[in-house]
Amino acid sequence: MLDRTIAIVCAESGAWPNAFRDNLSSLGVGHVEIVANVDHLEGALDPDKVNFVFFQQAVGLQFMKKSLRILRMFPHGDVKYSPAILMARELVETQLRQMVELGFDDVIQFPCTKGMLRHRMHVQLMNPISYFITDNYFGPDRRAFFEGDAGRAPRFGTRAYERRTFIRNPDYGVAVMDVQRFDPNDVEEADQIEI
Known about the structure:
single chain, alpha/beta, Rossmann fold, five-stranded parallel β-sheet, 9 strands, globular
């Protein structure tokens, strides 16, 4: 299944991105490209494939923010639904929360085996995934990352949002299975609950 995907490794120059590229290739990923400059990310994305976009922690916060904005606003194909995965050495909980708030689909901390990496990549394929759209965010369900199943429970708030549930299929692209919209202006005040 991974042979029908591509991986983009956003990383500083050096030995790590080359070794990680080799690991991804040995897992069967169809094509792996290294991007060291955020301005080259858009050209590396393939609108006809599922794009795994990996980030080395060392690229820094500004690189990550700009790259995620490019990814989530990509105008062609299903690229905006691509899994963005941070590869990190050590993150304390506040740093981990910051990365999730940016919109990463997963954060994998080293040490990590090839089997673990393969499993985490497969979780991103052929499984229902929910993204939220608000006036300033498009990306994975950040609450579910820390709250598990409890974070997936329906809830309402004070701001409008859209929740899209979809499946990434390496053969057919992204299939949106469900769209739920919430607008607090359409709900009676007595029906709203606090989140």
